[in-house]
Specification:
two-stranded antiparallel sheet, mainly alpha, elongated, about 75% helix
């Protein structure tokens, strides 16, 4: 319990439990879309930077894939190109919130390969990234995404118009 008082009033006791409950209630009112934007930005901060760095020093990147990463079944140039494309492409989509669920899948696959083949001891970091990507995969980009605008436009079209336009295309 906490006591409060003013100069003229005697101290009164304010129970801590209702204040804690009120604080928790305020925290629970933070929209999920706010969290989804932060999750998208967190992943973009990791993967876009890595992809741009790979593209900026391509010869070093190919050498890294040949000597350190050693991704099985793929030549180093192909693996480097594929990984760079996934990192830059999917990160850009996540930044825009466009195709969020689809963009999360290749990044999850890349993390799985990194975990199993390249850096098996880095599981705590991979677990964080995977958890964030699983939230984006299951919840989408949120209200502050281009996905939302696309779905609003799609949902606003009557089914008959969609069917006719699909047949004529």
């Amino acid at each position: 319990m906490t006591t409060t008082s003013t100069s003229s009033d005697p101290p009164r006791v304010v129970p801590a439990r209702p204040r804690l409950a009120a604080s928790l209630d305020r925290l629970e009112r933070i929209p999920m879309s706010f969290h989804l934007v932060l999750f998208r930005l967190a992943i973009v901060g990791v993967f876009l930077r890595a992809g741009l760095q790979k593209l900026a020093s391509w010869e070093s990147t190919v050498a890294l894939f040949a000597e350190e990463y050693k991704v099985p079944l793929l030549p180093p140039v192909v693996a480097a190109g594929l990984v760079s494309a996934v990192e830059v492409g999917c990160s850009t989509l996540l930044l825009l919130g466009l195709g969020t669920r689809l963009a999360a899948l290749p990044l999850l696959g890349q993390i799985l390969v990194i975990q199993l083949v390249v850096y098996p001891d880095a599981w705590p970091e991979h677990l964080v990234w995977s958890s964030i990507l699983l939230i984006l995969l299951t919840r989408g980009g949120g209200a502050l995404s281009l996905d939302r605008l696309v779905w609003r436009g799609w949902a606003g079209r009557p089914l008959a118009r969609l069917t006719r336009s699909h047949r004529s295309a």
